[in-house]
Amino acid sequence: MKEERDFELIGGHPALDLVNTLDWRFRSGGQEELLATYAGLLAFVAQEHLLSPRHARELGRNTSPGAGEAALAECRELREALADAIYAQLDGRRPAGATLRTLERFFHNAREKQRLLWDGHHFRWEWQGLETAPRIPALLLANAASELLLSNNMQKVRACDNPECRWLFLDTSRNRTRRWCDMKVCGNRMKARRFKAQHRN
Ligand SMILES: [Zn+2]
What we know:
Elements: H1 14-19, E1 22-23, E2 32-33, H2 38-47, H3 53-62, H4 65-90, H5 97-112, E3 114-118, E4 123-127, H6 136-149, E5 157-159, E6 168-170, H7 183-198
Antiparallel strand pairs: 1-2, 3-4, 5-6
The structure holds zinc ion.
Zinc ion is lined by residues 160, 162, 165, 167, 180-181, 185-186.
């Protein structure tokens, strides 16, 4: 697998980090695609601990370029539906009907591929032989996303205050006062911009 740079996982949840992989989503100068290759997608899912590094390496070795492209496109489709739904909620809008249907399809599809097992100590969901399927990242991400969307944690989802960034994160600060994806990235940049505006004259 070719080397991929690390993802900045500041979202506190895989579904939010996934939305953030389209960087500078609201920048007039253009967006930046961080999920550019299937190898990158595998690195992302492994960094989220949804796949083990070994499992990700095996998928990277055994997946044909065509299957990898299709799996990547599927994850981007899920990402854009999630972005649409979550930013709609944050902005007080209704998510589009098509967005809801897309998410519903992903969530159903992921759940119906699983079997409920009892391992002698715990109940758990197991993927029926799909661990080696190139599209397992989309199933894992869809499951994670459905857990978040239907949980009370949705009340804690915030967007970075930089209007060109708006990276998503779970605000777990005590007083719900977190404003930035990363103080070093957007916090300082926005402060500098305000400082310039105040001192322009
Ligand atoms: Zn930001």
